[in-house]
Write a sequence for this structure.
């Protein structure tokens, strides 16, 4: 069935997947390391990663689709973060979240590709398609399918794309010959990502201690952000791109990125104080079909308060004083901390 891979790749490219690789549905070799990562508590508050279903699926894709014989690994690039404008109250949002929610966009494309597989086979096939939400070790699968290597910052890196791309997978009953894995480690002795990380969350074994990761703290973490880490977050309002922006392989990243992933009109956040003018309804309208909904309104405002404190700018004081009187204890406490930073 080697000849089937060519039309699959062609259709994948038509749908915006600039890289398409094939591998088997065999259990991943790296699962024991993932299990150790969970056992060490490095998943922080992301307890869903340690659920029985999540562990079983990552240990063996056949648990998700017993008929699975192959996995199609796919990559879609998105633009790297725009240059900072150096405005006094500017806040930073991770590049992947600046446009429409990639889950919805890529999920529709995966369904279209599955339909193409059915037509190619002449019958309805068994599939499972995932984009960042399925319990699979997607970076190992992608590397095994030839899409790149797992870098020192734990991101998958492709020589031409860098690491600014989304990953997706299709588990299928088709038996497709696997591509050669990407065996080279092109990080070499470079450790710019580790040195640049403000919180030191990148570990020597190329995993992330989520408890210290800015992306985790500003997106997944609920409640107050631990005080020792607040000053290290800087002006990050949602996510972090630091370890990617310093990576030499990202100098030419995402040159083929599509317009649907480009920033919405209200990004970047040029004045964080203006974000507090949004009502609950206004926030819901503004961030409908946006990845920023993941953190929730409380988390978003909490992040803004911490970031305003880290600007050390007196212009943020009126907003912080109002937030300090908020009945939400997370927001009032975060505002008090931020005021202390400014007045210090």
């Amino acid at each position: 069935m080697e000849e089937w891979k060519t039309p699959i790749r062609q259709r994948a490219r038509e749908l915006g997947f600039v890289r398409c690789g094939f591998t088997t549905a065999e259990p991943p070799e790296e699962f024991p390391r993932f299990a150790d990562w969970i056992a060490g508590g490095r998943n922080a508050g992301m307890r869903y990663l340690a659920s029985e279903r999540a562990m079983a699926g990552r240990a063996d894709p056949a648990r998700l689709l017993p008929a699975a014989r192959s996995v199609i690994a796919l990559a879609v690039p998105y633009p790297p973060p725009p240059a900072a404008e150096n405005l006094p109250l500017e806040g930073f949002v991770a590049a992947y979240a600046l446009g429409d929610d990639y889950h919805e966009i890529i999920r529709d494309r995966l369904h279209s590709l599955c339909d193409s597989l059915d037509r190619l086979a002449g019958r309805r096939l068994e599939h499972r398609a995932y984009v960042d939400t399925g319990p699979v070790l997607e970076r190992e699968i992608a590397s095994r399918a030839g899409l790149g290597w797992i870098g020192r910052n734990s991101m998958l890196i492709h020589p031409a794309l860098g690491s600014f791309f989304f990953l997706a997978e299709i588990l299928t009953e088709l038996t497709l010959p696997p591509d050669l894995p990407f065996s080279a480690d092109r990080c070499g002795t470079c450790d710019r990502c580790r040195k640049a990380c403000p919180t030191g969350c990148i570990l020597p074994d190329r995993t992330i201690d989520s408890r210290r990761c800015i992306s985790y703290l500003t997106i997944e973490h609920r409640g107050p952000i631990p005080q020792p880490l607040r000053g290290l977050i800087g002006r990050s309002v949602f996510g972090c791109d630091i370890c990617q922006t310093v990576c030499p392989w990202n100098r030419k990243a995402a040159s083929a990125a599509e317009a649907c992933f480009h920033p919405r009109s209200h990004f970047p956040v040029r004045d964080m104080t203006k974000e507090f003018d949004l009502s609950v309804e206004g926030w819901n309208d503004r961030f409908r079909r946006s990845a920023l909904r993941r953190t929730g309104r409380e988390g978003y405002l909490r992040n803004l308060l911490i970031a305003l404190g880290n600007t050390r700018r007196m212009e943020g004081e009126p907003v912080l004083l109002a937030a300090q009187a908020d009945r939400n204890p997370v927001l009032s406490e975060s505002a008090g901390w931020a005021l202390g930073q400014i007045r210090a």
About this structure: The chain has two domains: 2-81+95-172, 192-245+264-343. Residues 2-81+95-172 form one domain. The chain has 13 helices and eight strands. The chain has a mean pLDDT of 95.
